[in-house]
Amino acid sequence: MHEKISFKRLIEDISARGGVSQNVSRLFVREMAAVIREGLLEDGVVQLSGLGIFRLKNVGERSGRDPGTGRAITIPAHRKVYFKPEKRLRELINKQYAHLKPLPLEPVPETNTEADAFNRFLNDSFVDGAIEAKVETDKAPLISREADEQKSSPKREVKYAPAIVHKDPAAEGSGEKKTPPPQEESHSRKGLYATVFVILLLIFVYMNYRPEEDGTRAEEPTTSALTSQAGIETAAVNEKKQEAEPTLKTPPVSQPAPEAQSVAKRSARSHLTRHGESLWRLARHYYDNGYLWPLLYEANHDKIENPDFLVKGLTLTIPALEGSFKKPTEADREMLALGHLRAYKAYRQRNHDEALDHLRVAHNYAPELVNSYADEIDSRDGLVLSNIP
Amino acid sequence: MNTSEALKRIAGRMQKSLKETKVLYTHCIGVMNDHLVERNHFNIPRLGTFGSVERKERQAYNPHFKKKMLIPRKVSVFFKPSRALKEEIK
């Protein structure tokens, strides 16, 4: 370990390992060195497998100082030999350190706990909350012996900034009977947490409630229209699709012109298509979910030739959705199933791979409905469908 | 110049078959690698000194992550060309 190996010993080792005479191995090493020198002079690069690569590099002229005399001299341009051990050798040598990996040096966090960070947040935004807490702790039990502590504890309550909280342990070090204050602190903190949580909850509820209120107001007529429509539709379920479609289209006709859509997106009942729009995009816009595009296709199938290509300048009707994408009502399911069936037919005509997916989805939404259209379904696809449990 | 070319030349100089030279070469490299793993250093006349040293762990700035990193210790191989080689290539 860590010793200088003489050339003689190196030769001995090689001959012992190779089972050859020392003369041969000495000759070999000498010749190898000579060949490396030759190669460097000829090509400037010598690559030896198992060892590495020797390379010549040019070093430009530069000014330096004579270390002996201290005079400025110019070091002439010259060439230098560089050796880079090959990867296998580097890995072999570093085997014992292979498990060590570079680690990011994180700066020591200013706050140790979440509570401290929360307190800082409190101090910044809810100053009144902090004062309340302080008042509470001031009213805390006052016994003669704890008077000293009481003096210290309110101070602590005022100092909610974590920087000061950090200093506290040092201050605590001087006094011995400082155990109770942290408890009080935690109590007051709990109270603070609770109040802030309630405030946040109220804000959250308020913010969520407002738009919903508007939405319900706007959607009230539509939902009532839809319930009646749904009634009609459920009755028409077992009949042919052509009968169901007119009922879908009837309510939107009386709806306002497309100019209104920018005012109230949700309640828009018709849409004038523009350049670059797609059914998916419209579904995402109106229902917040692109997967509901077959609804639009079903409602406007007479205007749309290809569901993948939306011509601009069409006035599309936007059917209302009773439930949501995740919780569709019975009427929604039927509409979606019809939409997917229509998409299936369109894609089947074009021999598109997605056709089968739409059939599956339609079957998922309303199996009986799909079964009632069995005669329109391709026999191959019907076979696939029958395999669905 | 690559290994096979170097071996051909060595074989020609030593007047030995390529096969023998290859065997010798593998043993020679094996011994050298063993010594490097053992952190020994050795000198080859008119070529230079090979050896391995341990680099201590250090802090370095990683420009990709834009973070200071702790680079663990590792062993690296060095080669110091001999005076004769230096003069020759100058």
**What fraction strand of chain B?**
25-35%
Q: Ends of chain B: how far apart?
A: 19 Å
Write the element-wise H/E pattern of chain B from the N-terminal end onward: HHEEEEEH
- Mean pLDDT of chain B, to the nearest integer, reads 90
Number of domains of chain A: 3
Strand content of chain A: 5-15%
CATH topology of chain B: HU Protein, Chain A
Question: Structural class of the secondary structure composition of chain B?
Answer: alpha+beta
CATH superfamily of chain B: IHF-like DNA-binding proteins
Radius of gyration from the alpha-carbon trace of chain A, in angstroms: 41 Å
| Largest protein interface, residues of each chain | A-B, 62 and 60 residues
Distance between the termini of chain A: 71 Å
For the secondary structure, the number of strands of chain A is 9
Helix content of chain B: 40-55%
